[in-house]
């Protein structure tokens, strides 16, 4: 006997909650990026920031685990899988935080939107997934949007920051691929826990190589960065539990709104027209890829 589908109003309510959680996650991620930029400008090294980002993210993460699945979920038979996912993900995080410290907040955020494009390419190369002409076309259009954003004129572009931002996007894409593979056997809470642990260990290992002692204000902001990062990660997880990926993922691009607002209010940054135009092209291409993948999985 098959269960009847939930009533339409219940589906709408769940989707609405999922969207709200996804938007809240983007507010957290924009705030995290702003805190990273601020602390970096105060002379705090990137790896020290990564330590605080992950150490204090444990507070909401462990509370979440204790109230949902319980700590038995931390048992794993895939230590090498977690190590690979953490290595790729932390490479992206280090490059992403470095890019945030070097570029305007809106620009570094917009460039991070290219991750789904790289994920599509990597899924074909690494997972040997079939990528049709429609999705390859969307990747090409999206990469054209990236070129619009970076304005490849050596006299005008911030070369170093742009390179770090694009490497971060590739790292994020690689992490998505790794999560897709390890997620077949490992719960989301397990993946988040071991990634956070690896980030804390990496940051702590950099202690002998030039940490600074932050003043009380900067210390408070570093702790807040960790809490925001952890809460944002949990909001992302809960959004997927409440609503389909195809419903909530397009709202990731609201992060650009929050980043632009924070950048303007705190640093007086005015987004370049090319950045906004390119971001729209990349966002449109990424959403198209998402919709195509969703249809493909529904058929299988």
Q: Uncertain segments of ≥5 residues (pLDDT<50)?
A: none
Note the gap between the termini.
22 Å
Q: What's the main sheet like? A: none
Question: How large is the share of residues in beta strands?
Answer: under 5%
Instruction: Please count the beta strands (DSSP E, at least 2 residues each).
Output: 0
Average pLDDT figure: 86
Kindly name the structural category. mainly alpha
SSE topology:
Elements: H1 8-41, H2 46-55, H3 58-67, H4 79-102, H5 105-112, H6 115-125, H7 133-150, H8 159-182, H9 188-205, H10 216-242, H11 245-248, H12 254-267, H13 273-299
Helix pairs in contact: 1-4, 1-10, 1-12, 2-9, 2-10, 3-9, 3-10, 4-5, 4-8, 4-9, 5-12, 5-13, 6-7, 6-8, 7-13
Description:
With 300 residues, this protein is an all-alpha fold. Helices cover 76% and strands 0% of the residues. It contains 13 helices and no strands. It has helices at 8-41, 46-55, 58-67, 79-102, 105-112, 115-125, 133-150, 159-182, 188-205, 216-242, 245-248, 254-267, 273-299. The model has no long low-confidence stretch (mean pLDDT 86).
Entry keywords:
300 residues; mainly alpha; single chain
């Amino acid at each position: 006997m098959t269960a009847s589908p939930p009533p339409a109003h219940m589906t709408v309510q769940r989707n609405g909650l999922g969207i709200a959680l996804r938007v809240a996650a983007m507010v957290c991620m924009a705030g995290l990026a702003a805190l990273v930029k601020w602390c970096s400008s105060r002379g705090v090294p990137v790896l020290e920031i990564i330590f605080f980002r992950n150490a204090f993210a444990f507070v909401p993460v462990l509370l979440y685990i204790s109230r949902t699945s319980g700590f038995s979920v931390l048992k794993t038979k895939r230590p090498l899988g977690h190590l690979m996912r953490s290595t790729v993900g932390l490479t992206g995080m280090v490059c992403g935080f470095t890019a945030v410290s070097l570029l305007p907040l809106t620009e570094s955020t917009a460039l991070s939107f290219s991750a789904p494009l790289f994920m599509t390419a990597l899924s074909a190369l690494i997972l040997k997934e079939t990528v049709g002409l429609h999705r390859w076309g969307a990747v090409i259009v999206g990469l054209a949007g990236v070129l619009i954003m970076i304005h490849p004129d050596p006299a005008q572009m911030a070369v170093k920051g742009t390179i770090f931002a694009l490497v971060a996007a590739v790292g994020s894409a690689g992490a998505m691929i790794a999560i897709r593979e390890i997620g077949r056997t490992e719960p989301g809470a397990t993946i988040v826990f071991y990634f956070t642990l690896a980030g804390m260990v990496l940051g702590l290992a950099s202690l002998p190589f030039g940490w600074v002692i932050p003043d009380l204000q900067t210390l408070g902001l570093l702790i807040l960065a960790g809490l925001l990062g952890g809460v944002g990660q949990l909001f992302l997880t809960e959004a997927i539990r409440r609503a389909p990926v195809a419903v909530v993922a397009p709202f990731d691009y609201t992060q650009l709104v929050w980043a632009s607002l924070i950048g303007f209010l705190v640093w007086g940054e005015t987004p370049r027209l090319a950045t906004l135009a390119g971001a729209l092209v990349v966002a449109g291409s990424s959403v198209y890829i998402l919709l195509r993948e969703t249809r493909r999985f529904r058929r299988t």
